[in-house]
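Hey everyone, long-time lurker, first post.

I ran two proteins through the pipeline my lab uses and got sequence/structure pairs for each. Pasting them in order. The first:
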Amino acid sequence: MYWARWTDENPFQGPKMLGEQIIKGMAVTARNFLGSYVKADRLVTVQYPDELLPQKEAARNFPFLVYDGDDWQKGLRCVACQICEKECPPQCIYIVKDTVRKPDYIGKLQFQPKVFDIDTSVCMSCQICVEVCPFDAIKMDVEYELSTCDRFDGLLLRKQQLAKPNDYYRKIHPAEAAEVDARLGAQKAKAGAKARAAAAANPA
């Protein structure tokens, strides 16, 4: 009695419609299963680790430090301002600022980090360090094959391990890197024009 009343009030929820929906669902499953043998866009798995899917540009894992030029020590964009260390929610970044300015890759004297460590066992990949960095010195990597048997020292990445060239950044995040390069180039051009104007106004 109740079932008859229920199906009368809801004609699309009866046993006949329910069976049709199951058949339709199975047809979709079969179509995708059979299609995966003939259409590459229907493939859902790869033979990992022999095959690797390309990472999406928006993917992110742990931070790395960007450097310009050929020398990673001189080319680091980081000036040890320690903003990322202060803003990091899990406090996984540890920085010691060098006591003297040293020439960067173009010869300009800059402060540099004497120590720059990131504990990836604590890092939650929130990207706040990237967002607060005023020098575009720290960016998010897409590397995920980072397993290690040493859960202490093996997960603590130091300055040399974190340093990666700007070309690498352009490779993994091309659109973002192009925007950053354009902005930094405009800033350098503006600073150069200002310096030339100052030199012209006050000749030696």
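...and the second, right after it:
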Amino acid sequence: MADLDPIDVRTDEELAREARTGSSRSFEELARRYRRRLFVYLRSRIGSDEDAEDLVQDTFLKLYRGIDGYDPAYRFSTWLYTAAGRLAIDAYRKRSAGRSRLAIEEIGDPSGGWDGDPGRPEGSALWDTARTLGGDRFRALWLRYGEDMTIEEIAAVLGRTGLAVRVLLHRARTQLARRLGPDMRPLAQAAVSRASTRH
């Protein structure tokens, strides 16, 4: 029987604390765990796979350089998504400034192009439809159900109040249920039931 590598069983927060003491292996494990999920989150904001991948790399580089700034009192994922969100805003501003100097071009649907499943068996159809909500509605749903964040953690990432996040999630779930139609509504209801049992 093969022994598990102890790094595989450590929590994100344990790995982040080890990374603060200089363990590049621990930070690499954090990057491995979050690379794909962070790409999905950023892809919904940015509009292209290449730009989202660049922002994933930029986010991990920024966090690696600033790992001393991680506060172990908070979840690592909150710190990660907050940093990624800020970099996405900066990228958007730079792109907008560039557009005023260059010809305006279409960047496509910012929520399209993701072909994966966030880890739930019903994920594909549900998340394909959720992406069509766009903007903060998709991001709030993703952070809540894809990342299992609390309302308070989502509020910190999105820069909103807890009440605003609750309203945003309610509206997103309602809109998602309408878009799913009667055949898919049981999946949405299961998601709402899971949400009501958490925080």
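Reply from user beta_strand_b:
Welcome! Quick read of the second one: Residues 2 and 191 are 36 Å apart (CA to CA). Residues 1-112 form a domain with the Rna Polymerase Sigma Factor; Chain: A fold (CATH 1.10.1740.10).
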